[in-house]
Write a structure and sequence with these properties.
heterodimer; A: 511 residues; mainly alpha; two-stranded parallel ribbon; B: mainly alpha; 21 helices
């Protein structure tokens, strides 16, 4: 680990948002937005520079204060972290821009929500920290920061149902954290280390490790709202302010996924079995079908989009059963590992773009109509063509039609499914696509239908609509550098690494 | 980038950019919009002609862009693609002129022409695709870009039709997707024409290849409107006439038919498809669809609906020609791709003219219309004769080759199907012709909506005249070396090159 070149960017990526958060707390309330906007640009530039650094040097590390692990904290930025940090920055900058205009456009929100910018910057610091963390405890601390900020943002509007669903969110998230922390304690007790790389060497399979794995996975599943722990997500995401909803479902839930991906592929290789992978896959498939079906039944735009998040997160879980390979097969000959892994990353990226665009569009619609009942979307195409187009483009990416990022993800996932012989996941993937098409075109059908009233949409600033449209286009544009992106990601430790499944009498059977 | 690759991109861009720019224009900038439309359409025809000439000189055109390790976006010119690209670009130009006249003064023209351009972009994209992935990308893009055109009128009926259209096409797209991924997993990235890959896999992976074939075929059959997947086509008749014309002649239905040709000849290869016995079910369904479509058409009084069922029937000629092994029937199938296009577009233009000028939508209203709209009805009559299969109109040539092919392959039931269908075609088209020319017009007070020198607006008249003449010329000059037939024959010969 120490062999990697050192760089100060990882530290800056955490420090700058914290600094900006504190700075915005110091300033008067009506000045915060300016700090928020320019600060976001600054973080965006920093993320870009760090990204280039990783492209040039490969994985870089930073040892905080010069104290080497296990005493000190080591931040590691490999291509995978760089992609997640870059994604957060790209989406983050656009959401900041949107928020800036959103608060200005809404007369009622002038001077309200003073805590938005500080919370958002702390959240950003937490996310960057999470993507850079290299030990179990650091991961815990960062995901706690994320949770607290996320809940704070979710209840920002102060409305009754936001508070109610926010509380539910908080309780679920704390339960998840506790489970995770308990698992970490077990591992620390049995191995005496928290460093991910060190753990992967010393962790021995056994009852303790198995239990720790189960409880850590459980905790993360709650945090990422995996089926059947998804209950908290739709109300919390739909009750929040539009930019907050976008942040929560585009970025926050991805944090828990990132943790799970790294822990499963880099640490817990010794105790994963075929059955464990299948179980996660079943949860994913159930989420895809259940979430899409629920989305189809919604009458409110934001709730529909939130349920769709449950479904889309389900696709992420479906990559895990493909990552576990039977004993005796070398990971070199398992040609489905790399497509399955890539599918997950593309799903993260394209979903982040598409979903943030949809939530921002929801904000625009609420601003135009005063509510978000779906049947009022009639004639949207005629009066707000740009927003209609954003919804259409983002929706198409969610369905997974070519040439969107969602298509790349589904293509890779299906390919992985067939190559590995686990064809039974295919129906769920495709049925999910069809259901998604069902709710996306339900929206579009109404958007094209004539309205009985003459223009019932109040005018909304073009700038807000442009933000939503750009993010929607982003979910298509990521296909263009796809090949380079995949090559870049190959440098990360977790890439295409299979997990040798153990069965009784297998490699570690006698220990 | 090489000049030749750039040309391929330019062919796509010539309609993509106008489409996007039109969307950004204001609704009232009619002049700019029309200019962009026509400029794009003419540019596309010129570019395709340029590439055509280059191809005949022996130049090769390929554009490849890597998306992922084994996923490439590839455009490539071969004869079949060139034939389809020519058909699309020429008919698009004609339809653009027609649409400008047809929609004059209508609402939401900006949206209409924007998606109209995108629709043709995907149609030419399908023609130029060099591999399965690229084909699939444009195939799905076509679904999306035609949806706004189908629901263009925006009333409840149109929206409902749009819904049906989407369920069929998205469902078909999903099945096709499954097949395409399966094909990739089995055979890797296949470029069109690399039939030896499947041939080498066939002995070991027979079952998987059969499954993949039928998945892809049923996905494509939705757009090719083969029974029982044809339900969307008569319903999407609610779209404006230029859309129906384009939908029925080149864009959507031809994407399906063209895909079937690619699947059988350029992916699986004739020999492999024949050995694995994949074509018999296609032949049976296509044969049934021909009869079924004709019978249904017979009972329609709605002018456009009758044409729609006729399309269903006529399209399956292509599928049927593909399903019978033999150079002659393949030639018939490929040439019908072109002939059906120009004939059917003529008929839809004619129906649109009648509806637009006199407000007649039903066949029972057409008494004596030939005297009031002679040019339109002459064109219609030519096309109708072609559909029935009377020489020397284009349709005769395709039917003749299909028939010869069936005899050659000793599938005599196909000859029966062709004869029966011709009789039915005559039964439902001749009454229209008869009414138009020989029935006395009922005294009516309806004043034509157009008061110009001609029977209707020039922008509506020129296209129908042109395509009518095309239909005649394609049949008259079928023996010339520049005819679609000659070209189709060359393509078919290539498909059978490796056969003993």
């Amino acid at each position: 680990m120490i062999n990697f070149p050192t760089s100060s960017f990882p530290a800056l990526l955490v420090a700058l948002p914290i600094f900006l958060a504190i700075l915005s707390l110091i300033f008067r309330i009506n000045r915060r937005a300016i700090i928020g906007l320019w600060g976001s640009f600054l973080i965006g530039i920093l993320a870009l520079v760090s990204f280039i650094e990783v492209i040039q040097k490969g994985t870089v590390i930073h040892i905080l204060g010069g104290w080497e692990p296990p005493l000190g904290i080591l931040l590691r930025m490999d291509p995978l972290s760089a992609v997640f940090i870059g994604l957060t920055a790209t989406i983050g900058v656009f959401i900041s821009l949107y928020t800036w205009w959103y608060f200005r456009a809404r007369e009622a929100s002038k001077g309200r929500f003073p805590l938005f910018w500080p919370l958002w910057f702390f959240l950003w610091a937490g996310l960057n920290g999470l993507f850079l963390s290299n030990d179990l405890f650091n991961l815990y601390v960062t995901i706690e920061i994320i949770t607290i900020c996320a809940v704070g943002l979710a209840v920002l509007s102060g409305e009754k149902n936001a508070l109610k669903s926010g509380l539910r969110y908080l309780l679920a998230a704390i339960a998840g954290s506790m489970a995770y922390l308990f698992g970490v304690a077990l591992i620390y007790g049995s191995t005496g280390t928290l460093d991910l790389e060190h753990l992967s060497e010393v962790l021995k399979p056994g009852k303790t490790t198995n239990f720790a794995l189960i409880i850590i996975t459980l905790g993360l599943m709650i945090k990422k709202a995996a089926f059947p722990f998804h209950f908290w997500l739709p109300p919390a995401h739909s009750a929040a302010l539009a930019p907050v909803s976008a942040l929560l479902s585009a970025l926050v839930v991805k944090g828990a996924f990132y943790m799970m991906l790294r822990l499963w592929t880099e640490v817990f290789e010794v105790s994963l079995t075929f059955a464990a992978g299948q179980l996660i896959g079943i949860a994913g498939a159930a989420a895809v079908l259940w979430g899409s079906w629920q989305a189809l039944l919604q009458t409110n735009f934001k709730l529909l989009v939130a349920h769709s998040s449950v479904a889309q997160m389900g696709y992420l879980l479906m990559m895990f059963p493909l990552l576990i390979i039977a004993p005796g097969i070398s990971s070199d000959s398992a040609n489905w590992l790399s497509p399955a892994w890539t599918a997950g990353i593309f799903q993260v990226i394209s979903h982040a773009f598409a979903k943030s665009s949809l939530f921002l569009s929801a904000g625009i619609i609420i601003m135009a109509l005063g509510h978000d009942r779906i049947e009022s979307l009639r004639d949207l195409v005629a009066w707000m063509p740009m927003t209609a187009m954003a919804i259409g483009i983002a929706g198409v990416s969610l369905i997974g039609l070519p040439p969107s990022g969602g298509f790349m993800a589904k293509w890779m996932l299906l390919k992985g499914v067939f190559l590995s012989g686990q064809w039974w996941w295919a129906p769920a993937i495709l049925l999910g696509s069809l259901l998604t098409a069902g709710y996306v075109f339900m929206l579009l059908r109404l958007a094209f239908a004539p309205s009985r009233e003459i223009n019932h949409f109040r005018s909304v600033p073009k700038s807000l609509q442009i933000c939503a449209l750009i993010l929607a286009l982003g979910s298509f544009l990521i296909v263009i550098p796809a090949e380079n992106l995949i090559q870049f990601l190959e440098g990360s430790e977790s890439f295409g690494s299979g997990i040798q499944s153990i069965v009784k009498g297998g490699r570690y059977g006698n220990e | 980038m090489e000049m030749n690759s750039l040309l391929l991109l330019l062919i796509l861009i010539s309609s993509l950019i106008p489409g996007i720019v039109i969307l950004l224009l204001e609704e009232k900038q009619v002049l700019a919009r029309n200019f962009l439309n026509l400029f794009g359409a003419i540019a596309k025809v010129v570019l395709v002609a340029w590439v055509f000439a280059g191809y005949l000189r022996g130049e090769s055109y390929t554009f490849i862009f890597g998306l992922a390790p084994d996923l490439t976006f590839a455009l490539h010119i071969d004869q079949l693609g060139l034939l389809f690209a020519t058909l699309s670009s020429v008919l698009w130009l004609v339809t653009t002129i027609y649409a400008i006249g047809y929609l004059k003064g209508g609402k939401h023209q900006r949206r209409f022409f924007a998606f109209f351009s995108l629709c043709v972009t995907s149609s030419t994209g399908i023609a130029l695709s060099g591999n399965v992935l690229t084909f699939f990308v444009f195939y799905e893009f076509l679904t999306l870009s035609t949806y706004p055109l189908v629901v263009h009128r925006g009333d409840d009926k149109a929206v409902e039709a749009g819904r049906t259209y989407l369920w069929y096409t998205i469902g078909g797209g999903t099945v096709l997707f499954l097949g395409v991924v399966g094909l990739f997993v089995l055979a890797g990235p296949i470029y069109f024409g690399q039939t030896e890959i499947i041939a080498s896999l066939a002995p070991e992976n027979g079952l998987q290849l059969t499954i993949v074939f039928f998945l892809m075929l049923s996905g494509l059959a939705v757009k090719a409107a083969i029974f029982p997947l044809h339900g969307w086509l008569p319903i999407s008749m609610v779209a404006p006439a230029p859309v129906s014309a384009l939908l029925h002649a080149v864009a959507v239905v031809k994407a399906g038919a063209f895909g079937i040709i690619r699947l059988v000849y350029d992916i699986y290869g004739v020999q492999t498809s024949e050995q694995m016995n994949l074509l018999t079910p296609l032949a049976i369904f296509a044969g049934f669809t021909i009869i079924y479509g004709s019978v249904k058409a017979f009972y329609q009084d709605d002018f456009k609906k009758r044409l729609a069922y006729s399309t269903i029937s006529q399209l399956s000629y292509i599928a049927l020609g593909v399903a019978i092994t033999g150079v002659l029937s393949t030639t018939g199938a490929i040439v019908h791709l072109v002939h059906q296009g120009i004939m059917k577009i003529t008929m839809f233009f004619a129906a649109g003219n009648v509806a637009e000028t006199y407000g007649y939508y039903r066949i029972s209203q057409l008494n004596g219309i030939g005297r009031r709209m002679p040019i339109t009805m002459v064109a219609f009559t030519i096309a109708a004769f072609g559909m029935i299969g009377l020489p020397p109109v284009a349709g005769f040539v395709s039917k003749w080759y299909l028939g010869l092919g069936a005899v050659e392959a000793e599938t005599y039931w196909v000859v029966l199907v062709l004869l029966a269908s011709s009789a039915l075609n005559a039964a439902y088209f001749l009454p229209i012709v008869y009414r138009a020319w020989f029935c006395e017009p009922e005294p009516s007070t309806i004043q034509p909506r157009c008061s110009g020198r001609w029977e209707t607006e020039a922008l509506l008249l020129i296209p129908v005249l042109l395509t009518g003449l095309f239909s005649l010329a394609a049949g008259l000059f079928a023996a010339s070396t520049n005819s679609p037939l000659y070209f189709a024959r060359e393509i078919a010969d290539r498909f059978y090159l490796h056969l003993p």
